């Protein structure tokens, strides 16, 4: 891949189309938005796109995602993004245990090196460890693990009910309970 020769390149994934679909998705990761933009504006990329232009049904399309939204990128174009409440629940269920475990695991380091145990310094270290774990270890695997629940809405299912749409007695069907 030509992009590997550019500064900040961190990897590439090629997502093959699902059965019945024809679209491939190529995910390029760069360490900074500036490095990505250098690649996107490069002559090398323009030349590669020109070589395959006849194979592109809808032309060259670029979508840039950063941070949390990347964790919730749909696996297929048909899925759409998960509802915000599911993103919230999933993120909280991953971060909360880390906020308990990471400080506990780092306590011996903070005791051995008192300067690292100072409130602001230790908070920065703990936050960096949690964000690193979330970004590179936990969320990529966790979202794949719970993809069935995360992306289940719309197609072939009843829409989610809000509290305002509940029957007068406040009851929910078994399907509604599973969706929550």
Structure description:
There is one protein chain. This protein is mainly alpha-helical. It folds into two domains: 2-64, no CATH class; 84-163, no CATH class. It has helices at residues 33-40, 43-52, 68-71, 84-112, 119-145, 147-150, 174-179, and strands at 9-15, 25-30. The chain has a two-stranded antiparallel ribbon. Helix 4 (84-112) crosses helix 5 (119-145). Residues 155-173 and 175-180 have low confidence and may be disordered.
Produce the secondary structure layout.
Layout: E1 9-15, E2 25-30, H1 33-40, H2 43-52, H3 68-71, H4 84-112, H5 119-145, H6 147-150, H7 174-179
Antiparallel strand pairs: 1-2
Features:
mainly alpha, 7 helices, 2 domains, 180 residues, single chain
């Amino acid at each position: 891949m030509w992009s590997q020769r550019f500064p900040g390149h961190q990897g590439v994934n090629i997502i093959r189309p699902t059965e019945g679909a024809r679209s491939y998705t190529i995910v390029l990761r760069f360490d900074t938005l500036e490095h990505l933009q250098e690649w996107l504006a490069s002559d090398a990329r323009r030349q590669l796109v020109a070589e395959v232009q006849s194979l592109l049904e809808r032309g060259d399309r670029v979508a840039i995602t950063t941070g949390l939204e990347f964790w919730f990128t749909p696996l297929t174009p048909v899925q759409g993004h998960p509802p915000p409440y599911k993103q919230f629940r999933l993120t909280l269920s991953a971060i909360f245990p880390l906020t308990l475990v990471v400080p506990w695991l780092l306590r011996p380091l903070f005791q051995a090196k008192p300067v690292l145990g100072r409130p602001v310094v230790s908070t920065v270290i703990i936050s960096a460890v949690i964000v690193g774990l979330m970004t590179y270890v936990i969320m990529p695997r966790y979202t794949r693990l719970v993809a069935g629940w995360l992306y289940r809405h719309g197609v072939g299912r009843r829409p989610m009910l809000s509290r305002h749409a509940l029957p007068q007695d406040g009851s929910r069907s078994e399907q509604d309970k599973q969706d929550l």
